[in-house]
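Q: Predict the bound structure with iron/sulfur cluster.
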Amino acid sequence: MSLSAMVPMMKGFVRDLRAYRHELKKQDAWIRRYAANKGWSVNPRWMVYTNLRLWLSDCEAMYGRRYCPCFEPTGDPESDKKLICPCAYAQAEIDEVGWCHCTLFGRGDLTAADYKRAEAALMAEYRDVPLTWAGGALDTRGQHIEPLRGLPVPDAIHQVKRALNAKGTPLEVIVATEVEAKHLERLAEMRSLSYARDDANGVIKVRLGDR
Ligand code: SF4
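A: Predicted complex:
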């Protein structure tokens, strides 16, 4: 990873660590208890494991429930329920490939090297996908659909966080759904940013700026 990509990532890590440092133990306790009951392993790599616990805490703060850090909830209660970590898909993924999508859990015999390989595949899905710009706005629509959940990867909120890290504000964003626009409003509130809607011709456009 280049230095210019690494610096904002580390800043985000420090920001989340400050915000959720008291949550880390709580997340660790249920994760280890659940994995032990299932005979699974937990990602042993400190940085990734810490990040995953921070992201779970961020999801709880953002959406009010401990949704999967890798997928944005859709607003449909039935499908969103399946995204609460540990999600309804984890066992099938562990049986098939050895680890859950986010690499939090894995088969009981996985090594740190196996987890490192799993993380590389995950990062390729999120960080290696180029952001799409349309007339100066980040266009989050039309991403690859992950077949098991039927949800986009990377989702709108991940793309926006990446763009904020890379470019900062003001940031114009095109999203596909009302729910995604609502999530950006919540993100703006959590990061003390301004939020405005400027829809035209059926396209939902959000502007995030400094307050
Ligand atoms: S993919 Fe892993 S981290 Fe994501 S919700 Fe499922 S079990 Fe949790």
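A: Residues 3-20 form the longest helix (18 residues).
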